[in-house]
Design a protein that fits this description.
The chain is an alpha/beta fold and about 700 residues long. It has four domains: about 80 residues, no CATH class; about 100 residues, Nucleic acid-binding proteins (OB fold (Dihydrolipoamide Acetyltransferase, E2P), Beta Barrel); about 150 residues, P-loop containing nucleotide triphosphate hydrolases (Rossmann fold), CATH 3.40.50.300; about 160 residues, P-loop containing nucleotide triphosphate hydrolases (Rossmann fold, 3-Layer(aba) Sandwich). It is about 35% helix and about 20% strand. The chain is built from 22 helices and 22 strands. Strand 21, helix 17 and strand 22 form a beta-alpha-beta unit. Helix 5 packs across helix 6. The radius of gyration is 30 Å and the shape is globular. Bound molecules: adenosine-5'-diphosphate and magnesium ion. The site of adenosine-5'-diphosphate (ADP) has 15 residues, from helix 9. Magnesium ion binds next to helix 9.
Length: about 700
């Protein structure tokens, strides 16, 4: 035995790590820390390096200060707007008022008698000093001398395991753990990119002693995360472009006018531009991989149908895949409308088909007797075989996920058009859809009415209903949307579709035809109700979010959204897109009694803006990207330390670097890329197709 210490085994169960044990191991497991190695990437959520502590007596307005003291009193003023948490903090020289807005949750972390440090800008309140929304840290005891170190990493903690305890555990082993970290860039690359070495980055992320060190560590680890993600995307894109061939689709002038004559309107400038992009892509021997973004009702389906007809005219088949049966039906109906009397042979395939029917349809698809097939995920089943599929439309891809899409491409390499109504800010499009080209339809076709959105106060409910009744009498139609199908029990105060349906049909709208639609109904029943609503037999459709995407009934000009605060902003915007599809003005009425500030802000944004991109940006700001669009849904691991909004510049750099490397050395065989390749395989194994580099 030599006497150099062997580094801790990174696969060691967490409970055997020094200072952990079974009880803490259980808590750490809850935080997703299962092995010693997991500690390395259990990143702090913040770093706190407070400057010198001032005596309360000496602090002056406008100064940035740090004070330390014991909490004398805590009052939570819940009913103030916004709610305030008021704390008085005392040291041996004086007392200082501290106010935190919208921070009721802090009340659980603070208690009378405990010492804290707090830092922020001083201002005056009734002639005394106060801090507003300062940062703070609970400390074990008041600092005895100024040299005492209070700073360091702040970890996401859990009940029974504080940030300080986690910090101690990690600091104990960080030197040993970091012995397992190897760099995958060489020194010159690091220098050129102004990055510190990887081992040091892992040490400093946990044990930095000042902001500068923490910043350097963060920069390196964020870069790595963004770089590896971008490399995976670059590989995926390289594969799509170089390892699969597609049938080139050509469009002569004659074909172009033949297709256009199918539409009873002139295409808009945006539609024409997008079609030009699509036809250019589809003319090539490599598969198109394009994302078409456009707000609801902007005319995407028409564009998709144009491309499908082009594919069919080139003696091949086209498929349109929708996320739900209602939408598949609707796509099919609109295709039927445009293709009336045409020779194009079309079919719809759904999950609920009888097996005899299905077998016959599959045979026709396989023999090429069908030109265009519309369907749900049923299109992806093993036994669906095409004779010659050259073009696929995927509507609302994020509802499927990448792996399913990959299924459809298993045997064929069709040109692929992904359509989405979710306005994806540029930052997200770059990463999440980094292997797609993006087209946008910004302006909706002309001649549409406005959509007027109101947030209705509960006292005006009856007036709103009367307004709706008047318009129903004029033969307009209305949606009522609820966040839930039915109530859980009688204490459940959130309005639910099934329960309110009774009220609306028997009471408020008893003179009209009211129907209920929700996801737990049989698909035949759903289709029947949608058909009756479309044809005007039903005046009021009471529903859940099943009507969210793509439903197109131009005569429906009213929408009531109950307990609107229960929906996300993007979702509300999607819902609202169901109206405003005809020529007359439409009305969206939001009901909400929420006192939650974020919820209120969301509804205000919706009342103010009708622009999906604008709304998406604001939503991102309110909620962060994770909720709106998780990278995991796209076959990429979630980011642990980088954030594609805040770290956009670093992302752009990492992306450029990654694409350059893959362009120069697609299989990452060169000596300086071998370690990147290894890291990539370790990180993405099984998550994306990396066969050509693995
Ligand atoms: P999306 O798929 O983006 O929701 P659609 O293609 O379904 O939009 O179009 C929405 C509505 O607008 C449809 O009723 C369609 O017939 C109509 N429409 C599409 N393009 C035009 C256009 N250029 N001019 C007039 N109406 C159009
Ligand atoms: Mg549509």
């Amino acid at each position: 035995m030599n006497n150099t210490k062997t580094p801790i085994d990174i696969n060691m169960e967490i409970q055997y790590v020094k200072g952990v044990g079974p009880a803490r191991a259980e808590l750490l497991n809850k935080l997703d820390v299962k092995t010693a190695g997991d500690l390395l990437e259990y990143y702090p959520r913040d770093w706190v390096f407070p400057p010198k502590i001032e005596k309360i007596r000496n602090i002056m307005p406008t100064q940035e200060v740090t004070i330390a003291g014991v909490i004398e009193s805590i009052d939570f003023h819940k009913f103030k707007r916004p709610p305030q948490l008021e704390v008085y903090l005392a040291d041996e020289t004086g007392i200082c008022r501290i106010i935190w807005f919208n921070a009721g949750y802090l009340a659980n972390q603070l208690n009378v008698g405990i010492p804290i440090i707090a830092w922020g800008k001083v201002n005056l309140y009734k002639h005394n000093t106060q801090l507003v929304n300062p940062k703070f840290k609970v400390i074990e005891q008041l600092p005895q001398n100024e040299a005492e170190e209070l700073g360091g990493a702040v970890y996401p903690a859990t009940e029974g395991l504080s940030s300080a305890q986690i910090s101690r555990i990690i600091r104990n082993v960080i030197d040993e753990l970091s012995e397992h970290v190897h760099d995958f860039f060489d020194a010159s690359y690091l220098k050129e990119h102004n990055l510190i070495n990887r081992k040091l980055a892992y040490q400093l992320i946990h044990a930095a002693t000042d902001d500068e060190q923490a910043a350097k560590a963060k920069r390196r680890l964020k870069y790595d995360e963004l770089f590896l993600m971008s490399t995976a995307i670059a590989v995926r894109r390289y594969r799509a472009e170089n390892f699969s061939t597609a049938q080139p689709i050509t469009v002569s002038d004659k074909l172009d006018s033949r297709i256009r004559s199918r539409f009873p309107f002139l295409l808009t400038e945006d539609q024409n531009n997008v079609i030009a992009e699509i036809i250019e892509d589809m003319g090539k021997q490599k598969p198109m991989n394009r994302l078409l973004q456009g707000d609801v009702g902007s005319g995407k389906t028409v564009v998709a149908l144009y491309a499908a007809l082009a594919a069919i005219a080139n003696k091949s088949q086209a498929a349109i895949m929708a996320p739900t049966e209602i939408l598949a039906n609707q796509h099919f109906l609109s295709i039927e409308r445009y293709l009336r009397n045409s020779q194009v042979r079309r079919a719809i395939i759904t999950g609920g088909m009888k097996s005899k029917e299905r077998t016959e349809l599959l045979r026709q698809i396989k023999e090429g007797e069908i030109d265009i097939v519309v369907g749900t995920v049923a299109l992806l089943e093993e036994d669906v075989e095409f004779k010659n599929l050259s073009f696929v439309v995927i509507d609302e891809q994020h509802k499927f996920g990448v792996h399913q899409k990959a299924g459809l491409r298993k045997e064929h390499s069709p040109h692929c058009l992904v359509m989405t109504t979710t306005p994806i800010p540029r930052t997200l499009a770059m990463t999440v859809f980094g292997d797609l080209d993006v087209s946008i339809i910004k302006h909706r076709p002309p001649g549409r009415g406005k959509v007027i959105t109101k947030w209705v106060d509960p006292t005006h409910r009856e007036a709103a209903f009367e307004f709706i009744r008047q318009r129903l009498k004029a033969k307009k139609q209305a949606y009522f949307v609820y966040p839930r199908i039915s109530n859980i029990d009688e204490n459940d105060l959130i309005k639910a579709a099934v329960n309110e349906y009774e009220n609306l049909s028997k009471l408020h709208f008893k003179d009209f035809s009211v129907a209920l639609l929700h996801g737990q109904m049989k698909s035949d029943d759903k289709n029947k109700i949608m058909a009756d609503f479309r044809s005007g037999k039903i005046d009021v459709l009471v529903s859940t979010v099943v009507i969210e995407v793509g439903v197109d009934v131009p005569n429906a000009t009213m929408m009531v959204i109950e307990t609107a605060d229960r929906f996300g902003l993007a979702q509300l915007h999607q819902l609202r897109g169901r109206i405003g599809r005809g020529q007359s003005n439409s009305y969206c009425m939001l009901f909400s009694e929420s006192e939650n500030d974020i919820a209120k802000q969301r509804l205000e944004i919706l009342v103010r803006s009708n622009d999906g991109f604008d709304i998406a940006e604001q939503d991102l700001r309110l909620r962060g990207p994770g909720e709106l669009f998780s990278t995991r849904q796209h076959g990429l691991p979630d980011l642990k330390i980088a954030n594609i909004i805040d770290d956009f510049e670093l992302l752009s750099m990492a992306r450029r670097d990654a694409f350059e490397i893959i362009k120069a050395d697609p299989a990452m065989q060169q000596a300086e890329h071998k370690n990147i390749r290894k890291e990539l395989i370790a990180k993405f194994e099984g998550k994306i197709e990396l066969v050509d580099i693995a």
